[in-house]
Design a protein that fits this description.
The complex is a heterodimer of chains A (336) and B (228). Chain A folds into two domains: 181 residues, no CATH class; 128 residues, Cyclophilin. Chain A is built from five helices and 22 strands. Classes of the chains: A alpha+beta (336), B alpha+beta (228).
Chain lengths: 336, 228
């Protein structure tokens, strides 16, 4: 059996897929990758199912050694990556030779980087998923010394790239009104929409806390609402008035009032906002949100057709003369 | 989309939420991916690109009008559980404090909490975790102001006339009055979750020494009979 050996890895890294839908009534949230779009991008680059599990790297990378030639794709937060001193382009697929360490450094922008492998990981599916879900005690963080069995890889294409809009610096996040939004009153909601928040240092797969100058967003009676169903994207206002955006691994019910809900296609930008990044919220109507989501899903579905051959900077190619350059264009499959 | 049967917990609202969720499941509407309940609401998870908000809303309104959901029966196949529980001691250090807040002696508190079964009102928050109630009015005690940093899985905690039995290690604002060895979430088992809404649970007092041998049993010595 072929495997990936982890020589070094940052804290909190884990296997993540699209999660485990279907268990909400039993109190288990879907979970899955903090940046779901990154999974679709990796799958498009490797020509495989977006449900294939990848290694989620929060903030820091690691050193990975394959015992077979392996196709990999790198997505999400861009990190410095190299094989034998050769820099690897992010948002692209590459061939990593057997026994040669793949080194991935710290995130240069954003939070969560993803290492995808052609054929995925041959680990058992538990309750319909391979994601670690720390709060539920499902799976565990990956550690140096771990070895992950690799799935058979029917694919062969590498050297593909995706042109991805950067999403690692916060910005304006679109929200719709939630269950308890009217409780907050128009003045507070206006102030909420006009406030520039900074992502707190405290953030994880469960939620992201946001700070702002001035008074918080507490609401009269807000701490005695009956616990209700919550969903990733909900923005709870906690006891000290700070908004807290619920993420992939949030609990299934919550007792804090919700001021708004982030639309699903903007959630990767919340996940990828690093500590201190500025975030603003803009209310859109339900109809607008559905239309925005429709377009985002169409773009996501088109990702496999949006890949293009990776064009290398000639300065990065050590033995330029060995390449066939007669036409002046690199074929794009030089990794094979 | 959330269908709520009341602003605060009540038995009829809880029954209505459970029955209404079952009814939505039975409809099998295309575009509905999942349903769940809270204490007083049924929640319908759907794909708005397949099933428009207005369309789902109209269907739910029609379903609401079809029955008096507040008069709905409890779910079929309910079970009555007996769960061995250590009250107080170092395993559940807040029994004395909770009893005092409720105006009871420790002995009265144990008798009151274990005398009758309580019903699983909903499962939620963390995997397999039941909200149980409703306790006698004397247990209408608030949550503590500060969070207890961590209580272990199997902890029985109390507040606002409800009990919660934790399935995972967690921080909590509820007071830790009992400890069980029941593992509510067993990912490798079929089914992975022990309790279901509508089940009744009696937390039977046992000596501290009696819990130790039960730690090897995922069921923690719990047994049940089907309620006919």
């Amino acid at each position: 059996m072929t495997s990936l050996r982890i020589q070094r890895i940052g804290p909190g890294a884990s296997l993540q897929d699209l999660g485990r839908p279907g268990w909400l009534a039993q109190g288990l949230s879907r979970g899955g990758a903090a940046d779901r779009l990154a999974l679709y991008e990796g799958a498009a680059l490797l020509g495989q199912d977006p449900g294939t599990a990848a290694i989620e790297l929060p903030g820091a990378g690691g050193v990975f050694v394959f015992d077979r030639d392996a196709r990999v794709a790198l997505t999400g937060a861009p990190m410095a990556a190299s094989v034998e001193g050769q820099a690897l382009v992010w948002n692209a697929s590459h061939l990593v030779p057997a026994g040669t360490p793949l080194e991935i450094g710290a995130a240069r922008a954003g939070v969560y980087g993803y290492l995808h492998v052609g054929g995925g990981f041959d680990v058992p599916s538990v309750m319909g998923g391979r994601s670690a879900q720390f709060t539920a005690g499902l799976g565990a963080a990956l550690q140096a010394g771990d070895s992950l069995p690799l799935g058979a890889d029917p694919g062969s294409v590498t050297g593909q790239a995706l042109d991805v809009d950067p999403r690692g610096s916060g910005g304006t996040i679109r929200v719709v009104p939630s269950l308890q939004t009217p409780m907050f009153g128009e003045a507070t909601l206006d102030r909420f929409a006009q406030t520039t928040f900074a992502r707190d240092a405290r953030a994880n797969r469960m939620g992201v806390r946001l700070n702002s100058d001035g008074e918080g967003f507490l609401v009269e009676g807000g701490l005695s609402v009956v616990s209700e169903v919550i969903t990733p994207g909900d923005i709870q206002v906690t006891g000290d008035g700070a908004p807290y955006v619920l993420m992939s691994e949030c609990q299934t019910t919550g007792g804090y009032p919700r001021i708004a809900t982030v639309i699903p296609c903007d959630l990767p930008r919340v996940a990828q906002a690093p500590a201190g990044a500025q975030i603003r919220f803009a209310f859109v109507t339900l109809d607008e949100a559905v239309e925005i989501e429709r377009r985002a899903l169409a773009a996501r579905a088109a990702l496999p057709r949006a890949t293009s051959a990776l064009v290398r900077d000639p300065h990065d190619i050590p033995d330029l003369l060995s390449y066939q350059l007669i036409s002046g264009v690199i074929a794009g499959d030089e990794d094979q | 989309m959330l269908v709520s049967f009341g602003p605060a917990l009540s038995e009829p609202a809880n029954r209505a939420a459970l029955a209404f969720r079952s009814a939505v499941e039975a409809e099998g509407w295309e575009g509905v991916s999942e349903t769940t309940t809270s204490l007083v609401s049924a929640c319908v998870v759907f794909d708005p690109l397949t099933l428009a908000h207005a369309d789902l809303s109209a269907r739910l309104m029609a379903l609401i009008a079809r029955h008096d959901w507040f008069a709905a029966a409890l779910p079929e196949g309910r079970r009555r559980w007996q769960v061995p529980t250590v009250y107080g001691t170092d395993l559940a250090p807040q029994l004395a404090e909770a009893a005092q807040v409720a105006g009871l002696t420790e002995g009265e508190a144990i008798a009151s909490l274990s005398a009758q079964p309580v019903r699983v009102q909903t499962i939620g928050f963390s995997p397999g975790m039941p909200y149980l109630g409703q306790l006698p009015p004397v247990w209408d005690i608030p949550r503590q102001q500060d969070l207890t940093p961590t209580v272990p899985a199997g902890a029985l905690v109390v507040a606002v006339r409800q009990l919660v039995l934790f399935s995972v290690t967690t921080p909590t604002g509820w007071r830790h009055v009992g400890q069980t060895a029941l593992q509510l979430f067993q990912p490798e088992a079929e089914p992975p979750f022990v309790l279901r809404p509508g089940d009744e649970v009696q937390f039977v007092p046992v000596e501290r020494a009696a819990l130790e041998p039960l730690q090897d049993d995922p069921m923690g010595g719990a047994t049940y009979q089907v309620i006919s």
